[in-house]
Write a structure and sequence with these properties.
The structure is a homodimer.
Chain A (H helix, E strand, L loop, with lengths): L1 H18 L2 E5 L5 H10 L5 E5 L11 H16 L5 E4 L2 H6 L1 H7 L4 E3 L1 H11 L4 E6 L1 H5 L2 H9 L4 E6 L3 H6 L6 H15 L5 E4 L8 H8 L4 E4 H15 L12 E5 L3 H12 L5 E4 L6
Parallel strand pairs in A: 1-2, 1-3, 2-9, 3-4, 5-6, 5-7, 7-8, 9-10
């Protein structure tokens, strides 16, 4: 009787918990490519997105600063009673994920491990390329993640600092971007890799050009797609997928320039941003 | 007797004051092009440079946020007992200069008015182009400054968001940058301007390519050169040029990533950065 009551109670609690939103943060708008894939896979979920646009970009900052900002963003999302946190930023995933996991009782999913696992599943010749911001590549975090899964894999990292500004400018196609991509990727192309990880959330918007430059023989790993898959598995495994049929809530918070976020962000997200609010993130 | 004493005292005070450094700040490394021109013109001066690299770039932030950061940077420099402040950032000069002037008793020189004045002196057909970050151009501050000097002048502003990342990547020459410049500048080239203001402190490093794309008929106005000239005039007029022959002090403060600042910054400055320190800017 007691155990039955407790079982009912757990189920009720679980149903309430399942209603709570998924929290997702990034330094800016890049994480919207991850949100997009999560919404594709789990369109019923309530979502809260935080873009720390007052302090973007994280990719050029020191590790210490990145972790400080990431902890502040996490505290903000925990205050919104989220059921799971997605760190939709490669730089933070590369540097600060362990620190964030220690701070919170809800699951924390980064974009790095899902991408690393997919790369290991994809490669045949155990030669994997990774492209990302300077900080992500120089942290060697992808190298560590991939070789922890299979030590006999060779990982070649190349920073592509101009890709983010090109995407934000909307130049996701055309001659200039093709030439920039050719210059960044020519070394990787000649290095006999068979798999390339897009290690920055902006890069899915350049998939067409990257694919064109690298050629069909090389499999591109889109961390956004892989991360959405892992989020789905965790929520399903814990019985925390939302079951309610009421329309889901999607709220966007930014620390600066909501108009610019909306304008550029709708291109990343692929649909309208209705609710957006500028907030101050309390400094820890 | 009394007046003589007072005169000696003033002169002594003035000499002491002249020893104090010029303070200069920017959101990052761009302002080093301004510092470079000041050092060219006044090599004896003591200098303190603050690069707010933890919060760079300002050019994509809201006006409110830019002014808040600028006020915090100004407080930091005033704490170092500087004799004059140079706002070596077009975004701040465009948005926050009046607020900063109200806050301080030492002269505050922005990069915007010196550039606007030089453009007015240069133009023959009263058609002036201005290039800069999105925030600088959309603020219309150059337009206001130039037309306040001569209301019959036509001002055409074009934002060039990719120029800053290209310069920071070190791609100040070559095909990609030439194509980007051609795309941004083609409208201005056809618009019959005779003078073009480089309204961003990074752009002097692209002078070669911009000149090549625009052609010889168009005079480029380098705000860094013009600002240094105005600083010299103010200090000379107030009898505050340093007279001491002892080697001058040059100190650099940054809010994040001193190693990256030193590496990229020495290219901007044209010589070694010896003393560099990471600091926390107190939030107002």
């Amino acid at each position: 009787m007691n155990s039955n009551q407790s079982g009912n109670c757990d189920r009720t609690q679980n149903n309430t918990f399942a209603e709570q939103p998924i929290g997702i943060f990034d330094s800016g708008i890049g994480g919207l490519t991850v949100l997009r894939e999560i919404l594709n896979l789990m369109p019923r979920e309530n979502m809260i997105y935080l873009g720390d646009t007052a302090r973007v970009p994280y990719g050029i900052r020191s590790s210490e600063t990145v972790t400080k900002y990431a902890m502040e963003n996490t505290e903000f999302l925990l205050g919104k009673k989220i059921k799971l946190i997605v760190v939709a930023c490669n730089t933070v995933s590369a540097i600060s994920l362990d620190t964030l996991k220690k701070k919170t009782d809800v699951p924390v999913v980064g974009v790095l491990f899902p991408g690393a696992e997919a790369a290991i599943r994809s490669t045949r010749n155990r030669r994997i390329g990774v492209i990302g911001t300077e900080t992500t590549i120089h942290s060697s975090a992808y190298h560590r993640a991939i070789t922890s899964l299979n030590p006999e894999t060779e990982v070649l990292g190349v920073p592509c600092p101009l890709f983010v500004p090109l995407v934000e400018e909307g130049w996701t196609d055309g001659e200039v971007t093709r030439k920039v991509a050719t210059r960044y990727l020519e070394g990787l192309k000649e290095s006999n890799i068979d798999t390339l990880v897009l290690g920055c959330t902006h890069y899915p918007l350049l998939k067409g050009i990257i694919n064109e430059v690298m050629g069909d023989g090389i499999t591109l790993i889109d961390s956004a797609v892989e991360t959405a898959r892992v989020v789905g598995e965790i929520l399903k495994g814990a019985g925390l997928l939302r079951k309610n049929d009421a329309p889901p809530e999607r709220k966007f918070f930014v620390t600066d320039s909501p108009d610019r976020f909306r304008k550029v962000g709708e291109r990343f997200l692929g649909h309208k941003i209705e609710y957006i609010e500028k907030v101050e993130i309390p400094v820890i």
